[in-house]
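Fig. S4 source data, part A: sequence.
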Amino acid sequence: MSDTIRTPYFVVDEGLLRKNLELLKQVQEEAGCRILLAQKAFSMFYAYPLIAQYLCGTTASGLYEARLGKEQFGGETHVFSPAYRADEFEALLQYADHFVFNSPNQLRKFGPCAREAGKSMGLRTNPRCSTQEGHAIYDPCAPGSRLGTTLENFDASLLPLLDGLHFHTLCEQNADDLETTLQAFEDQFGKYLPGMQWLNLGGGHHITRSDYDVERLVRLVQGLRERYNVTVYLEPGEAVVLNSGFLVTEVLEVLHNDMDIAILDTSAACHMPDVLEMPYRPPLLGSGAANEKAHTYRLGGPTCLAGDIIGDYSFDTPLTEGTRLTFGDMALYTMVKTNTFNGMPLPAIVWRDLDGKETVVRQFGYEDFRTRLS
Protein backbone atom coordinates (compact mmCIF):
# COMPACT_ATOMS: atom_id res chain seq x y z
CA MET A 1 0.00 0.00 0.00
CA SER A 2 1.20 3.51 -0.78
CA ASP A 3 2.55 5.59 2.10
CA THR A 4 1.94 8.81 0.17
CA ILE A 5 -1.83 8.63 -0.44
CA ARG A 6 -3.85 10.35 2.28
CA THR A 7 -5.88 7.95 4.37
CA PRO A 8 -8.50 6.67 4.47
CA TYR A 9 -8.70 5.24 0.97
CA PHE A 10 -10.14 2.23 -0.82
CA VAL A 11 -7.94 0.14 -3.09
CA VAL A 12 -9.21 -2.28 -5.74
CA ASP A 13 -6.57 -4.73 -6.92
CA GLU A 14 -6.79 -5.60 -10.62
CA GLY A 15 -5.00 -8.93 -10.25
CA LEU A 16 -7.33 -10.16 -7.52
CA LEU A 17 -10.37 -8.91 -9.43
CA ARG A 18 -9.24 -10.74 -12.58
CA LYS A 19 -8.87 -13.94 -10.57
CA ASN A 20 -12.55 -13.75 -9.60
CA LEU A 21 -13.60 -12.89 -13.12
CA GLU A 22 -11.71 -15.83 -14.62
CA LEU A 23 -13.61 -18.21 -12.35
CA LEU A 24 -16.95 -16.59 -13.19
CA LYS A 25 -16.14 -16.87 -16.88
CA GLN A 26 -15.36 -20.55 -16.35
CA VAL A 27 -18.75 -21.06 -14.70
CA GLN A 28 -20.49 -19.34 -17.60
CA GLU A 29 -18.73 -21.56 -20.12
CA GLU A 30 -19.19 -24.85 -18.26
CA ALA A 31 -22.77 -24.26 -17.11
CA GLY A 32 -23.94 -22.39 -20.20
CA CYS A 33 -25.38 -19.57 -18.09
CA ARG A 34 -25.08 -15.80 -18.20
CA ILE A 35 -23.62 -13.88 -15.25
CA LEU A 36 -24.41 -10.24 -14.50
CA LEU A 37 -22.76 -7.76 -12.13
CA ALA A 38 -25.12 -6.70 -9.35
CA GLN A 39 -24.25 -3.01 -9.10
CA LYS A 40 -25.83 -2.68 -5.65
CA ALA A 41 -22.68 -4.29 -4.26
CA PHE A 42 -20.07 -2.65 -6.50
CA SER A 43 -20.55 0.38 -8.76
CA MET A 44 -16.96 1.53 -9.31
CA PHE A 45 -17.44 2.05 -13.03
CA TYR A 46 -13.72 2.64 -13.56
CA ALA A 47 -13.52 -1.16 -13.46
CA TYR A 48 -16.47 -1.76 -15.78
CA PRO A 49 -14.47 -2.02 -19.02
CA LEU A 50 -12.46 -4.85 -17.43
CA ILE A 51 -15.47 -6.64 -15.92
CA ALA A 52 -17.35 -6.33 -19.23
CA GLN A 53 -14.69 -8.52 -20.85
CA TYR A 54 -15.91 -11.40 -18.67
CA LEU A 55 -19.57 -10.85 -17.72
CA CYS A 56 -22.70 -10.30 -19.82
CA GLY A 57 -24.09 -7.14 -18.29
CA THR A 58 -25.43 -5.59 -15.10
CA THR A 59 -28.39 -5.63 -12.78
CA ALA A 60 -29.88 -2.51 -11.25
CA SER A 61 -32.21 -1.61 -8.41
CA GLY A 62 -33.56 1.55 -10.00
CA LEU A 63 -33.12 4.31 -12.53
CA TYR A 64 -29.66 5.57 -11.62
CA GLU A 65 -28.03 2.14 -11.47
CA ALA A 66 -29.74 1.14 -14.73
CA ARG A 67 -28.41 4.24 -16.45
CA LEU A 68 -24.92 3.67 -15.07
CA GLY A 69 -24.92 0.07 -16.23
CA LYS A 70 -26.18 0.91 -19.71
CA GLU A 71 -23.84 3.85 -20.27
CA GLN A 72 -20.67 2.60 -18.57
CA PHE A 73 -20.86 -1.20 -18.86
CA GLY A 74 -23.01 -2.09 -21.86
CA GLY A 75 -24.24 -5.58 -22.57
CA GLU A 76 -27.54 -6.55 -20.99
CA THR A 77 -29.13 -4.25 -18.43
CA HIS A 78 -31.58 -5.85 -16.01
CA VAL A 79 -33.59 -3.95 -13.39
CA PHE A 80 -35.67 -5.01 -10.40
CA SER A 81 -37.54 -2.80 -7.94
CA PRO A 82 -40.03 -3.73 -5.22
CA ALA A 83 -42.18 -0.94 -6.65
CA TYR A 84 -41.45 1.23 -9.68
CA ARG A 85 -42.21 4.95 -9.74
CA ALA A 86 -44.57 5.95 -12.51
CA ASP A 87 -42.66 9.20 -13.10
CA GLU A 88 -39.39 7.26 -13.65
CA PHE A 89 -40.58 4.30 -15.65
CA GLU A 90 -40.46 6.08 -19.01
CA ALA A 91 -36.82 6.95 -18.37
CA LEU A 92 -36.06 3.38 -17.30
CA LEU A 93 -37.30 2.15 -20.65
CA GLN A 94 -34.35 3.97 -22.24
CA TYR A 95 -31.80 1.97 -20.27
CA ALA A 96 -33.10 -1.45 -19.19
CA ASP A 97 -33.55 -4.49 -21.44
CA HIS A 98 -35.06 -6.78 -18.80
CA PHE A 99 -37.64 -5.72 -16.22
CA VAL A 100 -38.40 -7.87 -13.19
CA PHE A 101 -41.59 -7.00 -11.31
CA ASN A 102 -42.16 -7.74 -7.64
CA SER A 103 -45.89 -8.42 -7.71
CA PRO A 104 -48.74 -9.19 -10.10
CA ASN A 105 -50.07 -5.68 -9.52
CA GLN A 106 -46.77 -4.11 -10.62
CA LEU A 107 -46.79 -6.35 -13.68
CA ARG A 108 -50.33 -5.26 -14.55
CA LYS A 109 -49.48 -1.61 -14.04
CA PHE A 110 -46.23 -1.40 -15.99
CA GLY A 111 -46.07 -4.59 -18.06
CA PRO A 112 -48.06 -3.40 -21.08
CA CYS A 113 -45.86 -0.32 -21.42
CA ALA A 114 -42.68 -2.41 -21.17
CA ARG A 115 -44.06 -4.93 -23.66
CA GLU A 116 -44.89 -2.16 -26.14
CA ALA A 117 -41.28 -0.97 -25.82
CA GLY A 118 -40.03 -4.45 -26.65
CA LYS A 119 -38.60 -5.24 -23.22
CA SER A 120 -38.23 -8.68 -21.70
CA MET A 121 -40.29 -9.09 -18.54
CA GLY A 122 -40.20 -11.33 -15.51
CA LEU A 123 -41.80 -11.76 -12.10
CA ARG A 124 -39.86 -12.19 -8.89
CA THR A 125 -41.11 -15.15 -6.90
CA ASN A 126 -40.79 -15.90 -3.19
CA PRO A 127 -40.56 -19.67 -2.62
CA ARG A 128 -40.67 -19.13 1.16
CA CYS A 129 -37.55 -21.23 1.57
CA SER A 130 -35.12 -19.63 4.01
CA THR A 131 -31.66 -21.22 4.12
CA GLN A 132 -29.92 -18.73 6.40
CA GLU A 133 -29.96 -17.88 10.07
CA GLY A 134 -28.98 -14.77 11.98
CA HIS A 135 -29.15 -12.31 9.08
CA ALA A 136 -32.87 -11.59 8.82
CA ILE A 137 -32.09 -8.13 7.44
CA TYR A 138 -30.70 -9.88 4.34
CA ASP A 139 -33.22 -12.74 4.16
CA PRO A 140 -35.74 -12.20 1.31
CA CYS A 141 -37.69 -15.25 2.49
CA ALA A 142 -38.09 -14.15 6.10
CA PRO A 143 -41.70 -14.09 7.36
CA GLY A 144 -43.45 -10.94 6.21
CA SER A 145 -40.94 -10.28 3.45
CA ARG A 146 -41.95 -7.60 0.96
CA LEU A 147 -39.77 -9.20 -1.75
CA GLY A 148 -41.24 -11.54 -4.34
CA THR A 149 -44.61 -13.10 -5.11
CA THR A 150 -45.65 -16.14 -3.11
CA LEU A 151 -47.47 -19.02 -4.78
CA GLU A 152 -50.83 -18.03 -3.30
CA ASN A 153 -50.45 -14.55 -4.82
CA PHE A 154 -49.31 -15.77 -8.24
CA ASP A 155 -51.77 -14.86 -11.02
CA ALA A 156 -51.54 -17.34 -13.88
CA SER A 157 -53.65 -15.08 -16.08
CA LEU A 158 -50.61 -12.83 -16.42
CA LEU A 159 -48.40 -15.54 -17.94
CA PRO A 160 -48.74 -14.08 -21.46
CA LEU A 161 -46.88 -11.00 -20.19
CA LEU A 162 -43.98 -13.00 -18.77
CA ASP A 163 -40.77 -14.06 -20.46
CA GLY A 164 -39.14 -15.36 -17.30
CA LEU A 165 -39.19 -15.91 -13.56
CA HIS A 166 -36.77 -14.69 -10.93
CA PHE A 167 -35.91 -15.50 -7.34
CA HIS A 168 -33.24 -14.13 -5.04
CA THR A 169 -33.10 -15.84 -1.65
CA LEU A 170 -29.41 -16.26 -0.82
CA CYS A 171 -26.79 -14.15 0.97
CA GLU A 172 -23.13 -15.20 0.91
CA GLN A 173 -24.17 -18.85 0.55
CA ASN A 174 -22.96 -22.02 -1.12
CA ALA A 175 -24.44 -24.18 -3.85
CA ASP A 176 -26.04 -26.60 -1.37
CA ASP A 177 -28.38 -23.81 -0.26
CA LEU A 178 -29.13 -23.02 -3.88
CA GLU A 179 -30.05 -26.67 -4.43
CA THR A 180 -32.43 -26.58 -1.46
CA THR A 181 -34.01 -23.39 -2.77
CA LEU A 182 -34.30 -24.74 -6.30
CA GLN A 183 -36.24 -27.74 -5.04
CA ALA A 184 -38.71 -25.48 -3.25
CA PHE A 185 -38.96 -23.15 -6.26
CA GLU A 186 -39.57 -25.96 -8.74
CA ASP A 187 -42.13 -27.63 -6.47
CA GLN A 188 -44.13 -24.39 -6.42
CA PHE A 189 -43.39 -22.60 -9.68
CA GLY A 190 -41.82 -25.20 -11.97
CA LYS A 191 -45.13 -25.80 -13.76
CA TYR A 192 -44.95 -22.24 -15.09
CA LEU A 193 -41.47 -22.58 -16.62
CA PRO A 194 -42.31 -24.48 -19.84
CA GLY A 195 -42.47 -21.87 -22.55
CA MET A 196 -40.48 -19.30 -20.56
CA GLN A 197 -37.35 -17.84 -22.12
CA TRP A 198 -35.26 -17.41 -18.99
CA LEU A 199 -34.87 -18.08 -15.29
CA ASN A 200 -32.89 -15.71 -13.06
CA LEU A 201 -31.43 -17.28 -9.90
CA GLY A 202 -30.59 -13.90 -8.37
CA GLY A 203 -27.52 -13.16 -6.29
CA GLY A 204 -25.96 -14.24 -3.02
CA HIS A 205 -23.96 -17.00 -4.71
CA HIS A 206 -20.48 -16.84 -3.11
CA ILE A 207 -18.95 -18.46 -6.19
CA THR A 208 -15.43 -17.09 -5.79
CA ARG A 209 -15.09 -18.09 -2.13
CA SER A 210 -12.42 -20.75 -1.68
CA ASP A 211 -14.82 -23.43 -0.39
CA TYR A 212 -17.63 -22.82 -2.89
CA ASP A 213 -18.89 -25.95 -4.67
CA VAL A 214 -18.53 -24.81 -8.26
CA GLU A 215 -19.16 -28.27 -9.68
CA ARG A 216 -22.53 -28.46 -7.93
CA LEU A 217 -23.51 -25.02 -9.23
CA VAL A 218 -22.63 -26.04 -12.78
CA ARG A 219 -24.64 -29.25 -12.42
CA LEU A 220 -27.68 -27.39 -11.08
CA VAL A 221 -27.64 -24.85 -13.89
CA GLN A 222 -27.18 -27.51 -16.54
CA GLY A 223 -30.14 -29.42 -15.09
CA LEU A 224 -32.39 -26.37 -15.30
CA ARG A 225 -31.43 -25.76 -18.90
CA GLU A 226 -32.11 -29.37 -19.82
CA ARG A 227 -35.47 -29.59 -18.01
CA TYR A 228 -36.94 -26.28 -19.12
CA ASN A 229 -34.90 -25.11 -22.13
CA VAL A 230 -34.36 -21.68 -20.57
CA THR A 231 -31.48 -19.23 -20.43
CA VAL A 232 -30.22 -19.18 -16.84
CA TYR A 233 -28.97 -15.95 -15.28
CA LEU A 234 -26.92 -15.43 -12.13
CA GLU A 235 -26.43 -11.95 -10.72
CA PRO A 236 -23.75 -12.03 -8.00
CA GLY A 237 -22.44 -8.82 -6.53
CA GLU A 238 -20.05 -9.87 -3.78
CA ALA A 239 -18.58 -12.80 -5.72
CA VAL A 240 -17.37 -10.49 -8.50
CA VAL A 241 -15.13 -8.44 -6.20
CA LEU A 242 -14.74 -10.78 -3.20
CA ASN A 243 -11.40 -10.20 -1.44
CA SER A 244 -10.19 -7.86 -4.19
CA GLY A 245 -10.53 -4.58 -2.26
CA PHE A 246 -8.92 -2.96 0.76
CA LEU A 247 -9.46 0.04 3.02
CA VAL A 248 -6.31 1.73 4.30
CA THR A 249 -6.62 3.76 7.48
CA GLU A 250 -4.37 5.46 10.04
CA VAL A 251 -4.38 5.56 13.83
CA LEU A 252 -5.19 9.06 15.10
CA GLU A 253 -5.05 8.43 18.84
CA VAL A 254 -4.53 5.65 21.37
CA LEU A 255 -6.24 5.80 24.77
CA HIS A 256 -7.28 3.52 27.61
CA ASN A 257 -10.71 3.01 29.20
CA ASP A 258 -10.93 -0.46 30.74
CA MET A 259 -9.02 -1.60 27.64
CA ASP A 260 -6.74 -0.12 25.00
CA ILE A 261 -8.61 1.80 22.30
CA ALA A 262 -7.35 3.06 18.96
CA ILE A 263 -9.25 5.79 17.15
CA LEU A 264 -8.85 5.55 13.38
CA ASP A 265 -9.48 8.05 10.61
CA THR A 266 -12.03 5.66 9.10
CA SER A 267 -15.53 5.07 10.43
CA ALA A 268 -17.65 1.94 10.57
CA ALA A 269 -20.77 4.10 10.41
CA CYS A 270 -19.61 6.16 7.44
CA HIS A 271 -17.24 3.97 5.45
CA MET A 272 -18.24 0.35 6.13
CA PRO A 273 -21.84 0.43 7.38
CA ASP A 274 -22.33 -3.32 7.02
CA VAL A 275 -20.06 -3.74 10.05
CA LEU A 276 -22.91 -2.28 12.10
CA GLU A 277 -25.86 -3.46 10.01
CA MET A 278 -25.11 -7.16 9.60
CA PRO A 279 -23.05 -7.03 11.88
CA TYR A 280 -19.68 -8.56 11.01
CA ARG A 281 -15.99 -8.27 11.85
CA PRO A 282 -13.97 -7.20 8.80
CA PRO A 283 -10.61 -8.91 8.21
CA LEU A 284 -7.57 -6.82 9.14
CA LEU A 285 -4.20 -7.68 7.66
CA GLY A 286 -1.58 -8.72 10.21
CA SER A 287 -4.00 -8.87 13.13
CA GLY A 288 -5.52 -11.58 15.29
CA ALA A 289 -8.62 -12.06 17.39
CA ALA A 290 -8.81 -10.27 20.71
CA ASN A 291 -6.06 -11.54 23.06
CA GLU A 292 -4.62 -13.82 20.40
CA LYS A 293 -1.56 -11.62 19.98
CA ALA A 294 0.33 -9.57 22.55
CA HIS A 295 -1.53 -6.27 22.22
CA THR A 296 -5.33 -6.00 21.96
CA TYR A 297 -7.17 -2.84 20.92
CA ARG A 298 -10.75 -1.84 20.29
CA LEU A 299 -10.75 -0.06 16.93
CA GLY A 300 -13.21 2.79 16.57
CA GLY A 301 -14.00 5.64 14.25
CA PRO A 302 -13.76 9.41 14.83
CA THR A 303 -17.49 10.20 14.75
CA CYS A 304 -19.68 11.12 17.73
CA LEU A 305 -21.62 7.85 17.48
CA ALA A 306 -20.81 5.80 20.59
CA GLY A 307 -21.31 2.61 18.61
CA ASP A 308 -18.89 3.57 15.83
CA ILE A 309 -16.82 0.49 16.66
CA ILE A 310 -15.15 -1.71 14.06
CA GLY A 311 -14.14 -4.46 16.48
CA ASP A 312 -11.49 -5.80 18.86
CA TYR A 313 -8.21 -6.91 17.28
CA SER A 314 -4.79 -7.93 18.55
CA PHE A 315 -1.33 -7.14 17.20
CA ASP A 316 2.25 -8.29 17.68
CA THR A 317 3.44 -4.75 18.39
CA PRO A 318 1.70 -1.77 20.01
CA LEU A 319 -0.30 0.65 17.88
CA THR A 320 0.83 4.25 17.91
CA GLU A 321 -0.34 7.47 16.33
CA GLY A 322 0.36 7.26 12.60
CA THR A 323 0.27 3.46 12.36
CA ARG A 324 -1.38 2.42 9.09
CA LEU A 325 -3.80 -0.51 9.05
CA THR A 326 -5.34 -2.30 6.08
CA PHE A 327 -8.78 -3.90 6.17
CA GLY A 328 -9.50 -6.61 3.62
CA ASP A 329 -12.57 -7.48 1.53
CA MET A 330 -13.51 -3.82 1.23
CA ALA A 331 -14.70 -3.63 -2.38
CA LEU A 332 -18.22 -4.94 -1.79
CA TYR A 333 -20.96 -2.99 -0.01
CA THR A 334 -18.50 -0.31 1.10
CA MET A 335 -18.07 2.38 -1.55
CA VAL A 336 -21.74 2.07 -2.52
CA LYS A 337 -22.82 2.67 1.10
CA THR A 338 -20.45 5.39 2.28
CA ASN A 339 -21.97 8.52 3.79
CA THR A 340 -20.86 11.84 5.28
CA PHE A 341 -22.44 11.65 8.74
CA ASN A 342 -20.69 14.15 11.05
CA GLY A 343 -19.17 15.74 7.95
CA MET A 344 -16.79 12.79 7.59
CA PRO A 345 -14.78 12.95 4.37
CA LEU A 346 -15.34 10.07 1.97
CA PRO A 347 -12.31 7.82 1.37
CA ALA A 348 -10.46 8.24 -1.91
CA ILE A 349 -10.77 5.45 -4.48
CA VAL A 350 -7.53 3.90 -5.75
CA TRP A 351 -6.84 1.34 -8.51
CA ARG A 352 -3.85 -1.00 -8.29
CA ASP A 353 -2.89 -2.40 -11.70
CA LEU A 354 -1.15 -5.65 -12.54
CA ASP A 355 2.26 -4.02 -12.12
CA GLY A 356 1.39 -2.83 -8.63
CA LYS A 357 1.07 0.81 -9.64
CA GLU A 358 -1.57 2.64 -7.60
CA THR A 359 -3.62 5.36 -9.29
CA VAL A 360 -6.01 7.66 -7.44
CA VAL A 361 -9.23 7.37 -9.44
CA ARG A 362 -11.31 9.73 -7.33
CA GLN A 363 -10.82 12.01 -4.35
CA PHE A 364 -13.59 13.67 -2.37
CA GLY A 365 -13.73 16.98 -0.55
CA TYR A 366 -15.93 19.51 1.17
CA GLU A 367 -18.05 20.14 -1.93
CA ASP A 368 -19.13 16.50 -2.00
CA PHE A 369 -20.45 16.95 1.54
CA ARG A 370 -21.96 20.40 1.02
CA THR A 371 -23.77 19.87 -2.30
CA ARG A 372 -25.75 16.84 -1.14
CA LEU A 373 -27.42 18.73 1.69
CA SER A 374 -28.83 21.88 0.05
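Fig. S4 source data, part B ends here. The mean pLDDT is 97.
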